[in-house]
Structures are given as C-alpha cells and as structure tokens.
C-alpha cells in the first residue's frame, strides 16, 4: 500500500481558491441564508397583517351606534342578504352560485353573525353598499347608560292640603 493518495488528499495541497470558496459557502449557509429567511418571514408577517386590516370585517361599538364593514366586492348586490333575528343578532350572508369556467366550478359563500347589544335599535338598522364593494351596517344605540342627575323643581304649593278638624261637640 502506498502513502501517495494521502499526500494528494491533503488540505494544504488544495488550491487557495477552493478554500476561499468553502469559506464563502460556510458564510452563506451559516449567516446569510438564515438572515434572508428571517427577513422573508418578517415580510410575510407584515403582509398578513396588512391583508387582515384591509379584508377582515371590522365591527365597532361606539357610544351612540354599532358599525360594521365587510368586503363583499366579489358578490352582486342581489346575492347579499341581511337578517335580524329575535335574539338581537344580525346575520350577513352572501352566496355566489356555481358557475363553470376553464379551470372548474366557482362557488363563494360568506357568512357573519353578530349579537348586538340589548340597547341597539334593530328596527332602525341601515346597510349601505359602496361602489368598491364595502358593505357598511349601522344600528343606533337607544338610551343612555350614563348616570345623570335629575333636577328638582319647586312648585311653592303644598302637595297635601291641610283640613281643619271639626270641633268636638261636648
């Protein structure tokens, strides 16, 4: 057996450009690639947050009204229905019937249900559909939950009239 193959496999015998290339690969594998991955994950997180802000329904309970916005731009106005049930809940539903295209069938269904506060006037609930496909629902709140002082007015007259007692006939 010869020692000749061991001499040629020695790392000191390899050209210097090969060692630099190996160092670059190690730098890429250990430092740059993980940083690029973290950066892309941060971009995905920011994208997800911005998408949720623009597409998710937003329901807000203010002191004088309940207000909610929904993105229904993929539905025609006649495909959207809003119902108020007896338990003070409002249901927003949109159904897009199946239609055939070159890739298959399309079917969309949107359903949201909100239980409104007891003091919401559901008989005066309003809905508006904007030209860019945002459905807004508003219901006013009746009555104040805030404590208030009731002023006292003085009449200046007695509430009960005083009657003279009849004299005893003795």
Strand content: 25-35%
Average predicted confidence as pLDDT: 74
Main β-sheet, spatial strand arrangement: 1-2-7-6
Residue share in helices? 25-40%
Q: What is the string of SSEs from the N terminus onward? A: HHEEEEEEE
**Given the helix and strand composition, which structural class is it?**
alpha+beta
Family: Belongs to the small heat shock protein (HSP20) family.
InterPro entries: A-crystallin/Hsp20_dom, Alpha-crystallin/sHSP_animal, HSP20-like_chaperone
GO cellular component, one term: nucleus
GO molecular function, one term: unfolded protein binding
3D architecture notes:
By secondary structure, the protein is α+β, with helices and mostly antiparallel strands. Helices cover 26% and strands 31% of the residues. The protein contains two helices and seven strands. The chain has a four-stranded antiparallel sheet, with no helix packed on it. A three-stranded antiparallel sheet has the order 3-4-5, with no helix packed on it. It folds into two domains: 40 residues; 84 residues, Sandwich (Immunoglobulin-like).
Short description:
26% of the residues lie in helices and 31% in strands. It has 170 residues and is of the alpha+beta class.
